[in-house]
Amino acid sequence: MKDFADIVYAVSGAVARISVNRPDRLNAYRNETADELRAALGQAEADTSIKVVIVTGEGRAFGAGYDLSTVKPNETPQLDRVLERHFNPLVLAMRHARVPIITVINGPCAGAAVGIALAGDIVLAARNAYFYEPFVGIALVPDAGNTLFLSRMLGRVRASGMMLLGDRISAEQACDWGLVWRVVDPEELNAEADRIAAKLVSLAPAAVAATKQLIGAASEHGLAGQLALERDLQGEAGRSPEMRAAIHTFFAAREKTSHA
User: Fold this and answer.
1) Is residue 194 part of a domain?
2) How many domains does one find in the chain?
3) pLDDT digits (tens, 9 = 90+) for 220-239
4) I want to staple 171 with a disulfide (CB 3.0 to 4.6 A). Which of 65, 75, 125, 188 is the partner?
5) CATH code of residue 218
6) Which domain holds residue 228?
């Protein structure tokens, strides 16, 4: 079994659990985090005894999006390359996986983490979780499949409000809007995930895989093309003066906090 630095991979019976393990950074993703998530999913896919995958975060957050601290203060980030090499392959792997994926949103879910959450087949959220699209506020564009998933799941008007305004969307509101299958109290979250996983395990694997394929074909036509467009436009946004200013603001705020 492969050793991972940013995630925890555990198997119990026919269920593989993949947890992002950077709680000190609210599970913000490095490039390596996305690579390890994809590798762990591939490991589960290769094990024919695995029938369900659970993806979640350790600690109090599902994921805080991309970790801007991995970008050097005076560096122009090549975000199109980041998406092409690390995040887009992960989203596609999740959607093309034979096994159903339960994404368990245990707390804040922001930026790229929203796309990864919505790439799951069953999205389960704790009542204190929320979804947040901060991209435009830091001179970037939504990526990791956000623009396709949110536009098709919410409709243009709600998707526009969520992505342009950057308001936090509570788990309850996300459920009302159709982003989440079910919302439960935080202390019940893992038990509910296990219950759903057990039900999926009891079903015929071929029928589950074929149903997942049909749902994807019906609702996600053009995902690869949308990911490519997000990549290109994010590359342009990442090279803008506004983004460079946002990076400097981020590091200045971090420096001030560290000396507080």
Assistant:
1) no
2) 1
3) 989 999 999 999 999 999 88
4) 125
5) 3.90.226.10
6) 7-186+205-258
